[in-house]
């Protein structure tokens, strides 16, 4: 039986690969989920009958469009825009927009696929989608960013709606970009439809805690994993990759819970500061002045900048990858474990390669995969939608408490599911199975759509 099932799942995976050639990140994300599903099909044979796995791997809709824009000198540029509306069985498509030169269909599809499971874990009524462009915001003026965002939204708006598809930010898309995107949506539609976009500014429909939510949430998840092991973050030495939105608020919450972060990074290099990263300085450099992390060392003579350095070689007890996909490979994972790392909480999406994940699981350290650990961002986006729907705005403490409860519930659900399916402490299996069952049940209930 087990062999037949394995063959069946392998054959579905081979079909996904053949139907989506060259989309390596998408293949990787699908394989990881499918590998968890054998016991689910034994318990729920109806999912096979309804071909749920085959259907769940095929996005409901994929939109690819031209984004022409003009730079400050009047030169014309053409980028490509994407929106993959993956699954709306439990709610409107929901997921961020990524602006980065590495973006192509395979990246957006992997992110959309991860998102649909992550969103199911939050317990909120949101389906999964993701979008973005191969546009590189780095070094562009505010006016160039605005013209690009306006052009992007001029196509995207027709696919959006509070009950249809609700984007947010991701790499390269923060408050500034979301402002320009929302402004253009409002201008084209003549509707102040707040809940069509999340991550909005506080003065125009945003939610308190949304900016902090992914980082804070990832730290809550690690806190819970350590609690099960009768341990805590107090006094732990931590390393956080990246220095963008997720990294900054991961560092902030780690500090608040008594841990010390000794390194962070950007795509050019790493900063190691044994005394503890000066978060106010990182915020100033990255959020306000949009500078490189290398400049940190000019303010702190006892900090070291290593151009092209590998952050996972910095010894730590807790590692929180918060930059991008596949940033920890098998060798990095081995280095982390050898240096005494006891917990990994993924703020980024799929930051660990499959061989790296195997190292963490074999070493039995507390490993929180992104689709569970970084769900706090989208969960708070759903809280933003709730506030928009009721024309209300909640205070910081109330909203943060809700985020904490959601992350604690995700931890409990994934932990208990792993136990139930005989994989104690394995949050990969716990997260994949919990979320798959939720979406699959909804898909069965809604009929063949
Ligand atoms: P962000 O604010 O744009 O920051 C991204 C950070 O990662 C920057 O420091 C960036 O350095 C670094 N980075 C990006 N691409 C890189 C690459 N190829 N190699 C090395 N470093 C790279 O983005 P973010 O919102 O923090 O997102 C970070 C991760 O969290 C992504 O995986 C995203 O999908 C995930 N995530 C975000 C949210 C959210 O609410 N924002 C929610 C869930 C998951 P440079 O500035 O040098 O590029």
TrEMBL record:
Database matches in InterPro entries: Aminoacid_DH-like_N_sf, Glu/Leu/Phe/Val/Trp_DH, Glu/Leu/Phe/Val/Trp_DH_C, Glu/Leu/Phe/Val/Trp_DH_dimer, Glu_DH, Glu_Leu_Phe_Val_DH, NAD(P)-bd_dom_sf, NAD_bind_Glu_DH
Keyword Lipoprotein included in the entry's annotation: no
Superkingdom of this protein's organism: Bacteria
Catalytic activity reported: L-glutamate + NADP(+) + H2O = 2-oxoglutarate + NH4(+) + NADPH + H(+)
Residues where NAD(+) binds: 214, 245
Segments passing through the bilayer: none
One GO MF term: nucleotide binding
Domain Glutamate/phenylalanine/leucine/valine/L-tryptophan dehydrogenase C-terminal: 207-447
Site (Important for catalysis): 170
CDD domains, per database record: NAD_bind_2_Glu_DH (cd05313)
Keywords: NAD, Nucleotide-binding, Oxidoreductase
Subunit details: Homohexamer.
Function: Catalyzes the reversible oxidative deamination of glutamate to alpha-ketoglutarate and ammonia.
Family of the protein in this entry: Belongs to the Glu/Leu/Phe/Val dehydrogenases family.
Protein name as catalogued: Glutamate dehydrogenase
Organism, as annotated: Georgfuchsia toluolica
